[in-house]
Amino acid sequence: MITLFAKAKINLCLDVVGRLPNGYHEVRMIMQTVGISDKLTFEKTEGEIRITTNKGELPLGEDNLIYKAAALMKETYGISGGVSVALEKHIPIAAGMAGGSTDAAATLKAMNELYELGLSEEELRKLGVKLGADVPYCVMGGTALSEGIGEVLTKLPPMPKCVLLVAKPDINVSTKYVYETLDSKEIPVHPKVDEMISKIEEGDVRGVAALLGNVLENVTVERYKVVDEIKQVMLRAGAQGSLMSGSGPSVFGIFERADLAQTAAEEIRRLGLANEVFVTEPV
Ligand code: ATP
């Protein structure tokens, strides 16, 4: 039996720099793991892939990314055995925090161990891209620059120490809608990804906070004002910077003081802007 904690991510920068003929978006993103995790417990089975979870709304069959990851490992390496997975979900679902991708990455790692395949992290990353653009990063974790469609990863030094407040409003945002709407427009401002990397290298948390940028944010905010409302609460409460993560609707704020982050969290809950609110940190 193996237990793994699969962590969520936020995007400090998310830029779209091109579109490939197959419709995929070429991105430049700075990814950061945060201390919000799902707990997954894996056990070998005779051949079946079985998933149980505390979250009723998640699919448990072939549509679950855990299932897809396990099936891919079985098929690629000719494993006759299977896996049973107990998923304790804490990461907000469909939130822009790579919840499904991080579970898939954990499943690749667990199958590697359970069946003693001896695969390197790089091999698992290569396999991961078949499951989704964020999966290779989730295999790696930490602070990283993600390019291409998400498969070209460069490790960065850790993000400077800070407190992160993450809030997921109770709305469903379709990633497909967000990217399609973005495609129909010019991108007015691109985030300064390379400058952000310098600020991370310098350990300059205020510099990082000042350069947060996500080209998908305007698209989502236009339709879902609550995303901007949460940002404004965080900034008024003393956040150095605040941004939507991925295609949303989760919003995070960078704070230098935990008490200010706590106050902002209470205010967000009091105003009914989000139910899922976490005070956490970069990992
Ligand atoms: P990303 O940031 O990579 O775009 P996300 O946080 O927006 O991901 P997920 O939480 O991964 O989105 O969920 C997207 C969809 O995937 C959900 O509608 C959900 O039903 C489905 N899904 C399949 N497997 C899982 C899983 N293990 N955990 C969460 N969602 C899953």
Outline the secondary-structure elements.
Layout: E1 2-19, E2 25-45, E3 49-53, H1 65-77, E4 82-88, H2 99-114, H3 121-128, H4 135-140, E5 143-148, E6 152-155, E7 163-168, H5 175-183, H6 193-202, H7 205-210, E8 213-214, H8 217-223, H9 225-236, E9 241-244, E10 251-255, H10 258-270, E11 276-280
The structure holds adenosine-5'-triphosphate.
Structure overview:
By secondary structure, the protein is α+β, with helices and mostly antiparallel strands. The chain folds into 2 domains: 154 residues, Ribosomal Protein S5, domain 2 (2-Layer Sandwich), CATH 3.30.230; 118 residues, Alpha-Beta Plaits, CATH 3.30.70. 35% of the residues lie in helices and 29% in strands. It contains 10 helices and 11 strands. The strands form 2 sheets. Strands 1, 2, 3, 4, 5, 6 and 8 form a 7-stranded mixed β-sheet that branches. A 4-stranded antiparallel β-sheet has the order 9-10-7-11. The longest helix is centred in the middle third of the chain and has 16 residues. The two termini are 25 Å apart. Adenosine-5'-triphosphate binds next to helix 1 and helix 2.
Structure summarized in a few sentences:
This protein is α+β, with helices and mostly antiparallel strands and 283 residues long. It contains 10 helices and 11 strands.
Listed once per kind, the bound small molecules are: adenosine-5'-triphosphate
Computed over alpha carbons, the radius of gyration is 19 Å
Poorly predicted segments = none
**What is the total tally of β strands?**
11
CATH architecture of the largest domain: 2-Layer Sandwich
Helical residue percent band:
25-40%
Quickly name the level 1 CATH class of the largest domain: Alpha Beta
Mean pLDDT: 96
The helix/strand order is EEEHEHHHEEEHHHEHHEEHE
CATH topology of the largest domain: Ribosomal Protein S5, domain 2
What share of residues are in beta strands? 25-35%
What class, by secondary structure content? Answer: alpha+beta
Oligomeric nature of the chains: single chain
